[in-house]
Amino acid sequence: MQHFKGHFLLLLEARTGNSICQVLFSQHYTERDRTSATMLSNKEKDLIKEIWERLTPVAAEIGADALLRMFASYPGTKTYFSHLDISPNSSHLLSHGKKIVLAIAEGAQDISQLTVTLAPLQTLHAYQLRVDPRNFKLLSHSMLVSLACYLGDEFTPVAHAAMDKYLSAFAAVLAEKYR
Amino acid sequence: MVEWTDAERKAIIGLWGKIDVGEIGPQALSRLLIVYPWGQRYFKAFGDLSTNAAIMGNPKVAQHGKTVMGGLENAVKNLDNIKQTYAKLSAMHSEKLHVDPDNFRVLAECISLCVAAKFGPSVFTAEVQEAWQKFLSVVVSALGRQYH
């Protein structure tokens, strides 16, 4: 029952108040939960959650590393940070990197609730920051490189696939309020 | 004409010198087939690609990964003329193999990630990554150049 948090359940409760139907639906959906447009199995979700939990203590380092890599490879992304000092090891870079990684880690705690968890960030990015969402892909790739560097052998093809899907879903949800 | 700084040339050639084509090539191609399974459409003749284990153990995948990665040697040796160096391969991928050129970009990303996982942050620094990715993007562009 706890795996299933889709809107179908609410709809069914409203229409029938029938608890048997609720159980049937939850059994059907336990294996794979749909998250935005991507399919993440429960195993993948657990793996993603576990990895980000482990990385939370080094959030600032991982985040700063990903940002630095993004700025070096895709200089256009620097245009969004003209108000910050983004040189290596700067306090701005570390604190901003930390913010980003902690948001990603928070989302990973309950991926099926991504739209709810990210609602404030959706608003921020759509109406204030207005970062072109094409840049989310660039940060996602840079983040994957940081993860690969940090995790080495542990960055298995399975972990890679799961992370890639999760970051795509995260980016897609983040861009939902843009238009 | 692509402009390379001395630092970029050094980084590319230095990194290339460390790479074992027989190791990274198969890894990168396996990852493409696992992470982006629609890529399997081009490899129907390769046999069993039905599970991750099958892909990672598939000798044809390994051989092809090695071939593709080995092809980069030409690019490293001809940094100032990559477009011309890859003209024939580009025509072949378009006219004979009918490969969507977006796959080249995706494979390049997989290669970078395998390299990052293998060598870690002290070798694959942000600067080395920039040079390496610029190099791969030139190759990717050259491979897509002859499509019509």
Automatic annotation (TrEMBL), chain A:
InterPro entries: Globin (IPR000971), Globin-like_sf (IPR009050), Globin/Proto (IPR012292), Hemoglobin_a-typ (IPR002338), Hemoglobin_oxygen_transport (IPR050056). It comes from the Eukaryota. Keywords: Heme, Iron, Metal-binding, Oxygen transport, Transport. SUPFAM superfamilies: Globin-like. CDD domains: Hb-alpha-like. One of its GO terms (molecular function) is organic acid binding. GO terms for biological process: hydrogen peroxide catabolic process. Residues 39-179 form the Globin domain. GO terms for cellular component: blood microparticle; haptoglobin-hemoglobin complex; hemoglobin complex. Pfam families: Globin. PROSITE patterns: GLOBIN (PS01033). Gene3D superfamilies: Globins. Belongs to the globin family. This is Hemoglobin alpha embryonic-4. It comes from Haplochromis burtoni (Burton's mouthbrooder).
UniProtKB/TrEMBL annotation, chain B:
The keyword Cytoplasm does not apply. GO terms for cellular component: blood microparticle; haptoglobin-hemoglobin complex; hemoglobin complex. InterPro entries: Globin, Globin-like_sf, Globin/Proto, Hemoglobin_b, Hemoglobin_oxygen_transport. The keyword Glycosyltransferase does not apply. One of its GO terms (molecular function) is oxygen carrier activity. Keywords: Heme, Iron, Metal-binding, Oxygen transport, Transport. GO terms for biological process: hydrogen peroxide catabolic process. It comes from the Eukaryota. PROSITE patterns: GLOBIN (PS01033). Involved in oxygen transport from gills to the various peripheral tissues. Belongs to the globin family. Heterotetramer of two alpha chains and two beta chains. This is Hemoglobin subunit epsilon 1. It comes from Haplochromis burtoni (Burton's mouthbrooder).
